[in-house]
Amino acid sequence: MSDKRQQPLKVFISSTYVDLKDYREKAIAVANRYGCLPLAMELFMAQPEEPTKVCEKEVKECDIFVGIYAHRFGFVPEGQPKSITQQEYELARTEGKDCLCFIVDPEFPWKPSLCEFDKKDRLDAF
Predict the structure, then answer these.
(1) Is-contact 34 62, C-beta < 8 A?
(2) pLDDT digit string (tens) for 20-79?
(3) What is the spatial distance between Cα 121 and Cα 126, in angstroms, rounded to a whole number?
(4) Which pTM value belongs to this model?
(5) Are 9 and 37 in contact (CB under 8 A)?
(6) What are phi and psi of 23, to 5 degrees?
(7) Which residues is 68 bridged to in the sheet?
(8) Is 82 exposed, middle or buried (0-12, 13-18, 19+ CB in 10 A)?
């Protein structure tokens, strides 16, 4: 009998951070509960590469992509038109990853301080 152990599924968790920290924590907990390996920026060790390159590498290595979205477009690196959050999602799609995306109900009450009203058009287009 073979003693091969199946590698846990790698689950990349993508979202803006400040507004969705609690939801990210829950997603990480669910991944752990089901024996998956969560890949989330708050769990990444210090690495010599810039954060966008680290996220790109992790998205490419994941088995499942989980996107959690609310009222923030997120950080847009200088000289780029898209937020890191949007770039992560688009890369996951390009790589053919299974994507599970959760979008806040527009009627759900949300703190205005956690909204990026100035980027609403870009968020809606995303």
Answers:
(1) no
(2) 999 999 999 999 999 999 998 876 555 556 667 777 889 999 999 999 999 999 999 889
(3) 9
(4) 0.87
(5) yes
(6) -70, -35
(7) 102
(8) middle
